[in-house]
Amino acid sequence: MDKVLEISPADSLARVQPGVITEEFQRAVERENLFYPPDPASLKNSTLGGNVAENAGGPRCLKYGVTKNYVLGLTAVLPSGEILRTGSRTLKNVVGYDLTSLLVGSEGTLALITEITLKLIPLPESRGVIRLGFPSVKEAVEATVQILGSGVLPSAMEFLDQSALTEVSRFLNIPVPEGTTSLLILELDGRKEAIHADMETLLSLVGPRTTEREFSFDPSQMESLWTMRRQISPTITNLGLHKVNEDIVVPRSRLSEAVEWINGLAKEHDVKVVLFGHIGDGNIHTNFLLRPEQLPLTETLLTALFTKVVSWGGVLSGEHGVGIAKRPYLSLQLSQPEIELMRGVKRVWDPQNLLNPGKIF
Ligand SMILES: Cc1cc2nc3c(=O)[nH]c(=O)nc-3n(C[C@H](O)[C@H](O)[C@H](O)COP(=O)(O)OP(=O)(O)OC[C@H]3O[C@@H](n4cnc5c(N)ncnc54)[C@H](O)[C@@H]3O)c2cc1C
Question: Per CATH, which fold does 240-336 belong to?
């Protein structure tokens, strides 16, 4: 089931089967001058069905929102074999409960999605990338807050902490400028003149805090400014340690404190930690890297991390979902009445617990 069934410029939507690869779909709609923004890092391999089931996000979600913001309607097969059609071909629809939204992010536990109607938006005319170095994560976080309060909304805003920067520069053999311990990579999109003006605004606003400033509008140079961010996952894998990969989200006002606290937690247990991710969303990819004898520490680290994050008003996961791995920690964030209601929803849709049993609950 990997066909794009329809791209309608008039209705600004597409109908797809769930096995379409995310990046291939994006290229297909771009040929029609249309845009499907959700961009999980896995987009070369992930399917739109998987993206919908997980409510996938990515760097561009800072400006454009996550997958759920683009799903207008679904066709799905219920465990009984009955076929369900939810939503519509319209942008607005407030008739009855929103079953489309309920299915998005349901991790394959409620129904099998067989067709997806996705909203499309106009393709931005051009892009520009800025890479900024900072002497500390604190400066990078303060610059983030300053930028997001400036009236300019970047389409992506990613960060690397000192350990991410050190490892990736070693892996790629790219030197880090003297005094830089944290990186921000920003992407802007829209009309060319507007991007130039926005870039000038941002550089004059946060430039004095930085140790390094580079920007480009040229596609291949922009890609090279993104390289360090894009190469973090291969870098971490190459270290040969066991990766416990979390994607907590904290309110932006807590980012600086969160980075410091997580580093303290790792130090306390003599564990390596690499932090990077979607700083504009407060979504920190937290990678504890454990030696084999440290594996029993996993539960202690995650319980401490999730408890702290929730105390800041944050959440256990911004993108990865609950699945099996985070199931034991669900009650750290959700109240008992919430969990009971969710279990009730599962019982109504899938009374025999046929679909992805053991996931979420
Ligand atoms: C290297 C890497 C990078 C990643 N980066 C990101 C990221 O930046 N942002 C992000 O949000 N996520 C990310 N992820 C997580 C994951 O790739 C995404 O959540 C993606 O959306 C999953 O799509 P998939 O096709 O791989 O789904 P799968 O892994 O095949 O399935 C995921 C879940 O969805 C269910 N499912 C799949 N298809 C359907 C269907 N048709 N109907 C009902 N249920 C279905 C499956 O049963 C399963 O429970 C990343 C994963 C990897 C491995």
Answer: Alpha-Beta Plaits (3.30.70)
Q: How many CB atoms lie within 10 A of CB 1?
A: 12
Rounded CA gap, 53 and 80, in Å?
A: 19
Looking at residue 49, its amino acid is G
Tell me if 322 sits within 8 A of 292, measured CB to CB.
no
ipTM over 0.90: yes
Domain 126-232's class?
alpha beta
pLDDT at 230: 87
Domain regions of the chain by residue span: 4-122, 126-232, 240-336
pLDDT tens for each residue of 59-89: 999 999 999 999 999 999 999 999 999 999 9
Q: At what angle do helices 162-172 and 219-230 cross, to 10 degrees?
A: 120
Distance 38 CA to ligand 1 centre (A): 13
Q: What is the DSSP letter of 177?
A: P
Is 3.30.465.10 the CATH classification of the domain at 4-122?
yes
- Low-confidence stretches of the chain (pLDDT < 70) are none
CA dist 290 and 307 (Å) reads 21
Measured from the Cα of 51, ligand 1's closest atom is: 21
The helix (run of H) or strand (run of E) holding residue 314 is: none
Judge if the beta carbon of residue 38 lies within 6 A of ligand 1. no
Distance 31 CA to ligand 1 centre (A): 25
Question: Ligand 1, from 46, 70, 231: best to mutate by most atoms within 8 Å of Cβ?
Answer: 46
